[in-house]
């Protein structure tokens, strides 16, 4: 375990991951690895903690956080789409993995989490440290662990996370190097009759269309 000015860096051991998960559920913030950027994690039910995320990131409050969970099939607890077969096709093909899917939100989280929007971004990643963490703390909300607009197109690594948000977090879980080359792909399935790609990452439009030719 290493120490920063106001945080501790934890090796991804089971006891440390459980400790960080407990901390998150007490309303504090944790940095953890994901399938792309190091992420700033928060309890999605805790309005005060969500407020701290927006403040430390200097993030526009109209930009929602992403909701994350361990089991791909759990998406129905948090969102809905007009045609579930479309959603399930992408879930089965790419989750766990670096794909965020925007769906219509279920009314189970505060408006502050999603900027008052009627949709919510869902993710289920494959990074083993992330999976161990979210299994203890799920669901969690997450955003990249950097000041908004200052990543300059690069993935947020531990060094950037420490520099940008270290003073605001309790723990940083060291998850090792990224396996992806860019931020996650994001698709919008809130209207399955007119789906769209909001951002292309390592999962390409061609790969998406191999599952369902709709982009």
Automatic annotation (TrEMBL):
YrdC-like domain residues: 14-203
Keyword terms, alphabetized: ATP-binding, Cytoplasm, Nucleotide-binding, Nucleotidyltransferase, Transferase, tRNA processing
Protein's name according to its UniProt entry: L-threonylcarbamoyladenylate synthase
Cross-referenced PROSITE patterns: YRDC
Domain of life: Archaea
Keyword Cytoplasm among record annotations: yes
Species the sequence originates in: Natranaeroarchaeum aerophilus
Family as reported in the entry's similarity comment: Belongs to the SUA5 family.
Reactions the enzyme catalyzes: L-threonine + hydrogencarbonate + ATP = L-threonylcarbamoyladenylate + diphosphate + H2O
One Pfam family here: Sua5_yciO_yrdC
GO biological process entries: regulation of translational fidelity; tRNA processing
Enzyme class: transferase
Gene Ontology molecular functions: ATP binding; double-stranded RNA binding; L-threonylcarbamoyladenylate synthase; tRNA binding
Cellular component aspect of the GO annotation: cytoplasm
Gene3D superfamilies in alphabetical order: DHBP synthase
């Amino acid at each position: 375990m290493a120490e920063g000015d106001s945080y501790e860096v934890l090796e991804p051991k089971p006891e440390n991951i459980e400790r960080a998960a407990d901390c998150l559920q007490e309303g504090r913030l944790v940095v953890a690895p994901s399938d792309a950027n190091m992420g700033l994690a928060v309890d999605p039910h805790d309005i005060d903690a969500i407020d701290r995320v927006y403040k430390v990131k200097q993030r526009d409050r109209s930009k929602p956080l992403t909701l994350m969970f361990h089991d791909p099939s759990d998406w129905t607890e948090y969102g809905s789409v007009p045609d579930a077969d479309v959603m399930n096709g992408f879930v089965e093909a790419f989750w766990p993995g670096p794909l965020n899917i925007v769906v219509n939100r279920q009314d189970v989280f505060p408006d502050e989490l999603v900027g008052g929007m009627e949709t919510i971004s869902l993710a289920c990643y494959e990074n083993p440290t992330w999976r161990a963490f979210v299994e203890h703390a799920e669901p969690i909300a997450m955003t990249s662990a950097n000041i908004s607009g200052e990543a300059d197109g690069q993935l947020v690594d531990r060094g950037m996370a420490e520099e940008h948000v270290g003073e605001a977090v309790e723990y940083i879980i060291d998850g090792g190097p990224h396996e992806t080359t860019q931020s996650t792909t994001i698709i919008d399935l809130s209207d399955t009759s007119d789906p769209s790609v909001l951002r292309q990452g390592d999962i390409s439009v061609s790969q998406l269309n191999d599952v369902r030719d709709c982009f």
